[in-house]
Structures are given as C-alpha cells and as structure tokens.
Predict the 3D structure of the following.
Amino acid sequence: ILEQPSRGRIFVVRNNEQIFGMVNLLFTISTARGGFVILMEDVVIHPDHRGQGYGTMLVDYVADFAKKKHFKRITLLTDRISAESQEFFKKRGFDYSNMIPMRRIIE
C-alpha cells in the first residue's frame, strides 16, 4: 500500500507523533457489485485508548472515504469468537454476509 497507493490506504489515529490506532484498507473490484469495493482489515486501537470513540471515528472515516470515492461496499472479517468486536461493527452498520470466508495459506 505504501509503494502502490492505488491498492489501498492506511489511516491512523494519532496524538502529535504518537500513533495509537489504525485501519488497513485494500481495494479490489466486485463483479457482483459492479465496481470497486474495500476490504477493511486490522482495525486496531491501543488498549489504553479503547472506549474513547477512536474506533468509531476510524470506521466512520472509512465509510465517508468510501462514499466520496464511490466504492460500492466495505467488507471486513472479524474473529468468530469475538462477540464484542462483532457487536461494535453491527452498531456501525455492518451486518453478517451470506459469504463464507475460506483461505489457503501459502508457505
């Protein structure tokens, strides 16, 4: 992403020079949606700064960015065992998908 910004973005939350939150966005094309979509990964807030609205600020910023740039969808993966994380994203407009994530690890 740093070398090829057309592939995505990294947004951070910081206080002066201290970074305490970040989100990683990857851009791809969806034939089902007929346009560009975002895969949102690694929404992270340092534990000392959680519960202060920074996660919401990041997710809202991504949603505004997606709308302004005419993306068709934002998809994210959250751990199945993290009910707290799932509830956080549901409160921000995300819902469960009919898609089942599958992966192949390349070593």
Summary: The chain is about 20% helix and 35% strand. The CA atoms of residues 45 and 53 lie 10 Å apart. The mean pLDDT is 93. The helical segments are 54-68, 83-91.
